[in-house]
Structure formats: C-alpha cells, structure tokens
Amino acid sequence: MADLLNVDEAIARIVGDIVQLETETVHLTDTLNRVLAEDIVSEIDLPPFDNSAMDGFAVRAVDLSGAGAESPVRLDVVMDIPAGYTPEGTLGAGQAARIMTGAPMPDGADAVIPVEDTDADFSDLDNSTVPEVVQLYKAVGTGAAVRKLGENIHAGQTILKAGTVIRAAQIGLLASLGQVDVPVVRQPRVSIVGSGDELVDIDAPLTPGTIRDSNSYALAALVAQDGGVPLRQPIAKDTPDAIRAMFKDALDASPDLIVSSAGVSVGAADYVRDILDEIGDIGFWRINLRPGKPLAYGSLEDVPFFGLPGNPVSAMVTYMVLVRPALLKLAGRSAEGSEVMAKVGEPMHSDGRRTFARVTLKKDGDDWVATTTGTQSSGAHLSMALADGLLVIPEGNAEIPVGTRLPVKLLRPIG
Ligand code: AMP
Ligand code: MG
According to the model, what pLDDT value does residue 123 have? Predict the structure, then answer.
C-alpha cells in the first residue's frame, strides 16, 4: 500500500489549505446552529441584583434562630415585594417582607423562608392580602434561598468562546445579556455537482440502464447538517462540453467549496479528470481508505475542489472523512462528532486500507457490540441508512476477530 496516501496526512494537507470565512453580524433569532465568530464577554452581572429564589418571606436569619415546628417565631410583615418591584426601606429586627421568586431582596434581609415553612397561604388568588404577622416554623442560615448579584455571571466574564455552535441554551444565554446582534462566521457555500449518462433525477421514470442520482441529495444534506449552504446542481451528461458547463455553473454560484461526485476513476467516459486537468489545479489522490480510494483534490479558480468517487457509500464516507474537516475549518467549527469503543460482534475483513464499516450497535452489559448492516458494497445505500455508525478498522489489518475493540464514529445518537 506504499503508493496510497495516508488518511491523516490527506486531512492535514487539506485543512492546511483552508482559511476560516469572514465574520458577519446576524440578529439573535437567526443564530441557531451558526458558529460564534468572537468570544462573548458579559458587560453585566447576572443576576443584576440580589433576589429571592422562592415565594416566601425575606427575613433576617438571626431572628429565626431557635425556630421550629413546635416553637414558631412570629415576625411583623412590613413590606410586600412582587417581582419587578424595587423595595423601599430597610427590614428591622423582628420584621419580615412578603417576597416573590425573582423579586429584589430588601435592605436588611439576608435570607428567604419559603411559604411552605410558614402559616401563610399564597394559593388563594381571590385573597392575596398581606398578613400582618407571619409564623415561621424553621430556622435558616444567612443567604438561604437568596440568589446573589453576579453569582451566575460577573461583568467582564467570557461566557462563550469563538467557535461555539449556537444552540438553544446559547441563544437563551445571549438573550439574557441583551445581545441582539451576534458575530457569526459566514456559512460556507458549497456547489454540489455530478455527472453520468446513466443518472436521472428523483422524479424521472427509470428507463433501462438508468439509476437515480442520489449523491447530490445525500451530499447536500451532509453539507446542510455541517452548517454549510448546499448549492445542488442538476447532473451533467458525460461529454466534455457538458462537464465544462457543469464546472462553470458551479463557479458561477460563488461557492467557497466545490464538491463533485463520479467521473474521477479511469472509465472510458470519465471526462471529469481531463476537464479538471484543463481548467483547474487538481491532484489525483489514491488514498489508503475503504470505501473511496480515488479522489481528486485541488482548486478551481482558487475555490477548493473535491472530486469524490461516484459510488454512493464511497461518496458519503469520503465526504465525512475528507470534506467535512475542510467545511468545518471554513465554518470556524472545531471537529465535533462522538465516538464510542465497541466490540466486533462478527468476524470482519479488510484489504489493509483504513476501512469504515457500516455497523449497528447493541448494548451487551457495559460494552457496545458492533455488527455490520448487511452487504458492505460501496454501492449499497441501505448499508449506510441502517447504520448507527462507522467502525474504523485501522490500516494493515486483514482479519478482525470477534471481540476486537475498535472505535465507532457515530452517525446518530445512540441510547
Ligand atoms: P463513476 O465514478 O462515474 O464510474 O461512478 C461509479 C458508480 O457510482 C457508478 O455505478 C455510477 O452509476 C454511480 N454513481 C455515480 N454518480 C452517482 C450519483 N450521483 N448518484 C448515484 N450513483 C452514482
Ligand atoms: Mg460515471
């Protein structure tokens, strides 16, 4: 296998060529799944004021020492503090304030006792009169049920790092800081093209000798899943002019990356290679990877270009192994994706290339056990669609005995 390029070296070369895209500013409501371009530093303390964590009574903890079920302490209720209200005055010895969750603590108070530990009842909506006196059945320590100013976030704190993928929780956090405009990395635009006289679109009837184009749809979905904008083009015919036009259209869409499938091996109608040689700066790589050995990589008018193999499983696997790192680098995202170790549940074979086997995973005690999803032919879509993950057989292995522990890159969450 000496003539085959090592997978990690191929990834390193590709990623070395790619530069993160520029920053743009979008409204908070448009940031889901976008990538933060800058660290976010809070300008405020959160909470912005000491406030109650419970519905109950704000007290001076010292007044309650000795309180118990049999020996309640009685305090005069001198204030009522709903949420959103700013209390006036100071709580003195022997005094309490009725207070609601989120309402500011009054001066003088240092603890909150929940209504459940008193003789008061807040549940009667028709009678919300503040009692004059409250009986408290429990002693509390200083600070009990009080949320202190700045205890979650303090002004000047870096709360999100550049490169973070913005999900619901990050949106909530940014909203709490009043961050209306958010700096994000521009989404990579990816032209997706392909060619083949045998290929028809998904809504066309299958005539003898034809199959449907599935790669452009699967690749577009992968690009979208990774945060890119897929620009899918119709399949081109296997003629030099059609393929020239295909690449011209791909470039006209102002992409940051071009991904094609098929036509890069050595078949009689594989014009893609010749045209790429003519119009681009492309190398043809034979990678130590299964499925998906032949791959074209380089640039077309300075746009990074990947020519993936045509077989559907090969196209998807080479995307995941080689194109995804490039896309994530453009998008400013660090590589995510989870991996588990699994025991091989059936004998597996490899030809010595780094092999990505499509497997399902089942739990056996504390272990995951991996079994292949039927035929592993690189044309078999179903093997991919049924898979929980890709089991990685390292280079140089021919026979993998049952029980061997190997990493599995997950394709979906497993429970
Ligand atoms: P090629 O690289 O052109 O020799 O294609 C290899 C195999 O992949 C052939 O069986 C093609 O029919 C198949 N193939 C190529 N492009 C696609 C596509 N877009 N969708 C589904 N199968 C494809
Ligand atoms: Mg072809």
Answer: 85
**Torsion over CA of 89, 90, 94 and 97, rounded to 10 degrees?**
60
Contact, 18 vs 330, CB < 8 A? yes
Beta-sheet pairing, 229-232 with 181-185? unpaired
Ligand 1, atom 6, residue with closest C-alpha = 310
Calpha distance 205→10 (Å, rounded): 39
Q: What separation in angstroms does the CA of 34 have from each of 23, 129, 223, 232, 326?
A: 11, 49, 13, 21, 17
The pLDDT value recorded for residue 268 is 66
pTM, full prediction: 0.90
Token readout for 379 is 């044309």
Q: Is residue 323 within 6 Å of ligand 1 at its C-beta?
A: no
Q: Which listed ligand is nearest to 316 at the C-alpha?
A: 1
Whole-number pLDDT of residue 376: 81
Instruction: Report the alpha-carbon distance of residue 263 to residue 269 in Å, rounded.
Output: 7
Ligand 2 centroid to Cα of residue 285, in Å, is 18
Pair type for strands 303-308 and 257-261? parallel
Encoded tokens for 116? 């459940």
Per-residue pLDDT at 365: 96
Residues with Cβ within 8 Å of residue 317, at least 6 apart in sequence:
289, 291, 292, 356, 390
Q: Which residues contact 385 (CB under 8 A, 6 or more apart)?
A: none
Residues of the chain with pLDDT under 70: 1-2, 125, 266, 268-269
pLDDT for 55 equals: 96
Distance 309 CA to ligand 2 centre (A): 9
